[in-house]
Write a structure and sequence with these properties.
With about 1150 residues, the protein is of the alpha/beta class. About 30% of the residues lie in helices and about 20% in strands. Strands 1, 2, 3, 4, 5, 6, 7, 8 and 9 form a 9-stranded mixed beta sheet that branches. Strands 20, 21, 22, 23, 24, 25, 26, 27 and 28 form a 9-stranded mixed beta sheet that branches. An 8-stranded parallel barrel has the order 10-11-12-15-16-17-18-19, surrounded by 4 helices.
Length: about 1150
């Protein structure tokens, strides 16, 4: 893979702050995040940490709990670094005590509090000292100390002195808990991780138009009617707990009650004070909109009752939150919403303006905020909006802080030049929700012909804001020294249209860590150079340490990079009419081909319900699994199905009949089934051609059951079969390792989505995790370690699990390229192994990305090893398909080898070298009774490829990943059966930026076009893009028949177990439905819009089964079907 141009930023802090020289990560064997301002460690050493280690400090209500927490953490962590620190370790003088001295124990946690500290750990004493100006500085020092401890038994770095303090006083995270709800434990985990990153402000955007989750004693109906439910509310006790937790972690909690816009949720309690509430947000053109996004409603400033409610809210909020800042919102006042109200229409008819309406509101509420001894914080819109804004004179800079989110450095400049203290949250750099597509339900941008420019992938603020972009951003760019002093700091923001607790950690971390370091100690080294490159290895280590503390960050690189620091630097099928989601109160995903349910009914589900079937080694375990699942699920739909329920005739039995019990799970096996559930009988029937079709029918049946006590849809007949026979997911387990339980969960969820192929890309240049008895050294020396290997028993378990779930497991051992990991065992058969991948001189790159090494086809020993590997793989994996890779053979790598150089000097070509390899291995694959699958490169590559005549279409399948529909056309027109994995549509890793450590595209002046955000295949491939893609686009009917199906692919440069579920689901669900029953309704129209509500329900059901997909919309949209579309449907 390669990288494209992008941009990123941060440059003038060095003009306004003096940086104390830091020891670089290269020179320091252990690191602290964020990097301290001064870290003097001339002779790196370590000594034991005494088992009876203690911390002494004067008592303090918040520091004392922090000390106790750090003692527990240090004693229990046994932290194991990714790379063992190269430090001189002596067993003498174990560290016994850390003594803390605090100058001012009375200092409160508020803006501007002194957070400086000095930590001294001598090498010749058994005690260390931590001196701090305030308890909050002591907490920062404790965190630094904790990061200097590692190992089991524990050891601590010594002979060092750290003097440290932040550049910016305001370093925060905004989390929106209105659009989707987060539990108290989620917020506490967030605050705890913030403290570890030395962030000090949790900006809690509590309410919005979508929900009002905060219970207020003075206004109980606001949450009572405006929240998503009693289980999605924050009580007074919850708030006290969160605030107290923040104090014990040195994190201020600043509440935001956004108004007068974004207040639709208030209308459930007070409809008379809210304009345009619960109306469709986009009744015509963009100029006619009633809101910036679905979820309408503004407070009416002309109604006196408005201020009674607002003041009650203000008063109680100030009693709940002790911080001196109060965020009043005031963003995105939409003209259409206020113009829809008769009282405001009358005001405007009398020559009033909407800006005057806003001024009435601010003049009535702003003094009230000040009367509660609070400093008011507003979004920049209140004075900078192009249509509705107030005169800045009514908001004096002395008592007002502005927060900027639009216009990048330009708006920061406008605010500070007007004298306002400013918090920077530029959407161009600091919005963590960007780059995940659009959440509206029927956006036509996703239904374009293949090859159409994808732009930002439907995300208004795309592309994805990478950690490098955030790290390089300078929030004082373009300001004078005087103006820069008015910048208080910054906040990254996570708006929750497409985020919830399942993805909270990976959306926030480690990108918020990048901002944390920049705001604490800057992004430049002592010479003034940007240090994002050297920060990469340190950040990977910090991610690892956060994971050891229970925080599930997204990875930024393969583990291989960490272990090698600096090396990186129209479908032609007949569609059976379907009942639409609008007509069906309960749905099955993927949508069946034929679903006849004329009288919507449900009957009870008998507690003694049974499933009868002929015995079968794989179907029987599946039946037992579904029985357990159905009996224990008590599934609660997001929207209660509007179905006529009768308590008579509970369903007692499901009888399964199978035509061919001997059918094996292989390509082309019949997966059809018919499910009949009468409403007047106590038994249902499932008939299937094979056991594998029966499994598909069981999944559909399970999705028709819900409630507690359980009930089942009745009076229906489903006849169902897939369009495509090959429906899969590729997972790369070489770049980063995934445990066996992760793979089993993936396969189980694939089965639920009626996907039937797990393409296991087991090995690559980065690691060889598969233990082979015939070649034990490949994993023994080529894996990341014995705890990151797959044993023979692991493989057997995975294959068996796949069979019991109707999922084939197809192995891929990618050869001859992507084989650097083989070199650890057999250096003599691998060219250019472990070399820097992109040298400045020579024959060009040695690999498509960091991680070099190709097998040498001219060395006989190569084939001894390869044939051993192939032979054992076919014994382990029973499937008749064998994937041989053969992609991305890079000229520079082979040209680096003397034997190949000699061959080329004798008029040989690199394509002939590849042909030697294929001619030596392809027949061997066939001799093992396997059909060979190769990546398209083997015959389509622009530089190195074989003559297609040596790969007969009768015994060869091609998999396409490049060139979109064009390459599919090239392959099928040559007669090859083809699997489609177009990177333009099906690569799930795209859109997360670049993982190399020092890419200059992230160090561009603010305002530079961000392109694909550094991701070579960006933007992110949204579920809508995947759903609307037609893998037979542009093919003749004959050609289309050669398309076996498709696979989405997750390459794991920036994915690991922490993000597996959310990267794959629900986007793979989108492909699953298209591959099974298509993406068009009975009239031939794309049905991506109506699929939205169904997919939300399916996400909810997957969650109930222990899967953690990413959300696609706020819960408000789910509760208000159709209101989040881009155009109102009839």
């Amino acid at each position: 893979m390669s990288t494209n141009n992008f941009s990123a930023i941060f440059s003038l802090i060095s003009l306004f702050f003096t940086f104390v020289p830091l020891i670089s990560a290269v020179g320091s064997p252990i690191n602290i995040w964020p990097k301290p301002r001064s870290f003097i460690w001339t002779t790196p050493q370590a000594i034991p940490l005494s088992p009876s280690f203690t911390i002494t400090s004067p008592p303090h209500p918040y520091l004392t709990p922090a000390i106790n927490r750090y003692i527990r953490q240090i004693q229990a962590a046994n932290y194991s670094p990714l790379l063992a620190p190269a430090i001189n370790f002596t067993t003498a003088l174990p560290l016994q005590t850390l003594t803390i001295t605090v100058s001012d124990l009375t200092a409160t946690l508020s803006h501007g509090v002194n957070e400086s500290y000095t930590l001294s750990i001598p090498s010749n004493k058994n005690s260390a000292t931590l001196t701090a100006a305030t308890p909050w500085g002591a907490m920062r020092g404790l965190e630094s100390f904790s990061q200097l401890v590692w190992g089991n038994p524990a050891r601590v770095a010594v002979g060092l002195v750290i003097s440290d303090w932040p550049i910016f006083e305001h370093r925060g995270i905004l989390l929106d808990t209105s659009r989707n709800y987060y539990g108290v434990e989620d917020l506490l985990r967030l605050i705890g991780a913030m403290s570890a990153n030395k962030l000090n402000v949790f900006h809690w955007h509590i309410t919005d138009s979508h929900s009002f989750p905060l219970v207020l004693k003075s206004e109980p109906e606001l949450a009572g009617k405006g929240s998503y439910g009693s289980d999605m509310q924050y009580s007074t006790e919850d708030v006290k707990r969160i605030v107290q937790f923040g104090l014990e972690h040195g994190v201020r909690v600043i509440p935001e009650i956004d108004m007068p816009g974004h207040t639709g949720s208030w209308a459930d309690a007070y409809p008379e004070i809210v304009t345009c509430a619960n109306m469709f947000w986009l009744p015509g053109t963009w100029e006619d909109r009633l809101a910036a996004e679905p979820g309408t409603g503004h407070l009416n400033p002309l109604i006196p009752k408005t201020y009674d409610v607002v003041k009650n809210v203000f008063t109680e909020i100030t009693t709940l939150f002790p911080d001196t800042f109060f965020h009043g919102g005031a963003d995105e006042i939409i003209p259409g919403c206020w113009k829809a109200d008769p009282t405001i229409q009358k005001y405007l008819a009398n020559n009033g303006t909407l800006s005057q309406v806003l001024e009435i509101f601010i003049n009535s509420t702003y003094p009230y905020i000040l009367s509660h001894n609070r400093t008011a914080v507003y979004w920049e819109d209140v004075i900078l909006d192009g249509e509705i804004k107030v005169n800045p004179l009514i908001l004096p800079p002395e008592t007002t802080i502005m927060q900027t989110w639009n216009g990048g450095p330009n708006n920061t400049k406008r605010l500070v030049s007007a004298g306002y203290r400013t918090i920077v949250s530029s959407a161009d750099y600091y919005y963590l929700d960007c780059g995940h597509g659009d959440f509206t339900g029927n956006n036509s941008i996703y239904d374009q012909p293949p090859g159409t420019e994808q732009g930002n992938g439907g995300s208004w603020c795309g592309p994805f804001k990478t950690w490098q972009l955030i790290y390089n951003y300078d929030i004082t760019y373009g300001l004078t020294e005087t103006e820069a002093k008015l910048v208080l700091g910054g906040e990254v923001a996570l708006w929750s249209e497409q985020a919830d607790p399942n993805v909270l950690d990976s959306r926030v971390w480690p990108r918020a860590s990048a901002m944390a370091e920049v705001l604490w100690s800057g992004n430049r080294d002592e010479a003034g150079r940007k240090r994002a490159g050297e920060a990469t290895d340190r950040l990977s280590e910090w991610i690892h340490r956060m994971a050891s503390r229970g925080v599930k960050s997204e990875p930024i690189q393969p583990l291989w990079c960490i272990r090698n620091p600096g090396i990186f630097i129209l479908l032609f099928h007949t569609f059976v009419p379907l009942i639409s989601a609008v007509g069906s109160p309960i749905n099955i995903w993927p949508k069946p081909r034929s679903f006849i349910w004329t009288t919507l009914q449900a009957i009870p589900f008998s507690p003694s319900f049974t499933i009868t079937s002929p015995p079968h080694p794989y179907l029987t375990p599946a039946i037992n699994r579904y029985l357990r699942q159905i009996q224990t699920a008590n599934y609660s739909p997001l929207l209660a199905p509007a179905i006529n329920f009768t308590t008579s005739l509970p369903l007692q039995t499901l009888s399964i009949t199978i035509s061919d019990l001997t059918a094996t799970l292989s390509h082309g096996v019949n997966e059809s089934y018919t499910l009949t559930i009468p409403s007047d009988k106590n038994s249902a029937t499932l008939t299937a051609a094979t056991p594998w079709g029966a499994m598909r029918g069981l999944e559909s049946f399970s999705q028709l059951v819900w409630g507690n006590p359980a009930r089942v849809a009745a009076g229906l007949v489903i006849s169902d079969w897939p369009i495509f026979e090959h429906r899969g997911i590729l997972l790369d387990t070489s770049r980063n390792y995934f445990g066996v339980e992760d793979l089993l969960r993936l396969i189980g969820t694939m089965s639920a989505n009626k996907l039937n192929v797990f393409h296991w890309h087991i090995t690559d240049s980065h690691s060889f995790p598969l233990v082979l008895k015939s070649e034990p050294e490949l994993a023994g020396k080529g894996s990341y370690g014995s705890d990151m290997q797959y044993s023979t028993e692991d493989v057997k378990q995975i294959v068996q699990f796949g069979l019991e779930h109707g999922v084939r497991v197809i192995p891929e051992v990618d050869v001859p390229g992507h084989t650097g990991s083989w070199a650890n065992a057999y250096p003599e058969i691998v060219t250019c192994a472990n070399m820097f991948w992109n040298p400045a001189t020579g024959e060009g790159p040695l690999a498509a990305e960091p991680g070099t090494g190709h097998l040498n086809p001219l060395i006989p020993k190569t084939y001894d090893v390869v044939k051993n590997v192939f032979t054992e793989l076919t014994a382990l994996f029973p499937d008749t398909l064998f994937h041989g890779g053969a992609d991305e053979v890079i000229p520079g790598c082979w040209k680096a080898d003397p034997t190949i150089q000699k061959y080329l000097a004798n008029n040989g070509t690199l394509s002939q070298v590849l042909e030697i390899f294929i001619n030596s291995t392809h027949p061997y694959i066939l001799s093992l009774n396997r059909t060979a699958v190769y990546w398209e490169d083997v015959i389509l590559d622009g530089q190195i490829k074989v003559n297609p005549s040596i790969l007969s279409p009768e015994t060869t399948i091609m998999q396409t990943w490049n060139g979109g529909p064009n390459n599919t056309k090239r392959l099928v027109s040559a007669g090859y059966r083809t699997i489609v994995s177009s990177a333009d549509y099906y690569y799930l890793d795209c859109g997360h930026g670049d993982f190399t450590g020092n890419n200059s595209i992230y160090n561009q002046p603010p305002g530079t076009e961000q392109g694909n955000g550094g991701s070579w295949c960006g933007p992110k491939k949204t579920w809508q893009l995947i759903y609307n893609y037609d893998i037979t686009y542009g093919l003749t009917e004959t050609e289309a028949k050669l398309v076996l199906g498709g696979e989405v692919a997750l390459w794991s440069e920036q994915a690991d177990s922490n993000v597996l579920d959310s990267r794959i689901w629900p986007r793979s669900s989108a492909m699953a439905e298209v591959m099974w029953s298509g993406n068009r309704d009975e009239a031939g129209r794309k049905r991506g819009g109506e699929a939205t509500d169904r997919l939300n329900e399916w996400i909810n059901r997957m969650v109930s089964r222990g899967v953690k997909p990413e959300p696609i919309q706020p819960l408000w949209c789910i509760r208000n079907p159709g209101m989040c579309n881009t155009a109102k449907t009839a």
